[in-house]
Amino acid sequence: GGGWVTDFSQIARLKPFAGDAGSRRQFLAVKRAKKEQLADYVRRKEHFRLDPGTIFDIQAKRLHEYKRQLLNGLSILDTYFGIRDGRIREFYPTTYLFGAKAAPGYRRAKGIIKFLHEVAGLVNGDPQVSRKMQVLFVSDYNVSYAEKLIPAADISEQISTAGTEASGT
């Protein structure tokens, strides 16, 4: 049932399934299907090819400084340069996806969006690195887009500054 939505302690009832290979296969098949659906949608909407075989690392939320999209972008840059200069030798291919909107007058947030687009251009335009990592800031992010992004996430970035998320969203 859906009781776990309001009583998260009920999630413990899933523990017996963790050891069941059939349940794990079924879960992974659903996750793969959601990733393929997102990849198809992004290909049509953004004209960008996502590889569903990569880790989908997604940060989808309203853009604000305290939500730390800038920090996430800097981390991606550090990984990029680590791969380029050989500091990072083993790296599972990862696709970083951002979905966000900024308030019309919030200039700093708009600067963060521009920065993330520049990071995407750098990473995706580098033939040495783009086989291992991709970055996309989706266009026209809204609830309908979120409904496609969130189920496809292998990693959902929740890195807001401590104490700033009143509802934990």
Q: How would you describe the overall organization of this protein?
A:
The protein is of the alpha/beta class. The protein has a domain at about 55-155. It is built from five helices and four strands. The protein has a four-stranded parallel beta sheet, with helices on both faces. Strand 2, helix 4 and strand 3 form a beta-alpha-beta unit. The two termini are about 25 Å apart.
Order of strands side by side in the largest beta sheet? 3-2-1-4
Q: What is the end-to-end distance? A: 23 Å
What coarse outline follows from CA principal-axis ratios?
globular
Low-pLDDT residue spans: none
Counting H and I runs of at least 4 residues, what is the number of helices? 5
The percentage of residues in β strands lies in: 5-15%
Helix proportion range: 40-55%
H-E order? HHEHEHEHE
Largest sheet: 4 strands, parallel
Q: What number is the mean pLDDT?
A: 90
Beta strands, count: 4
Provide the structure class. alpha/beta
Gyration radius (Cα, Å) is 17 Å
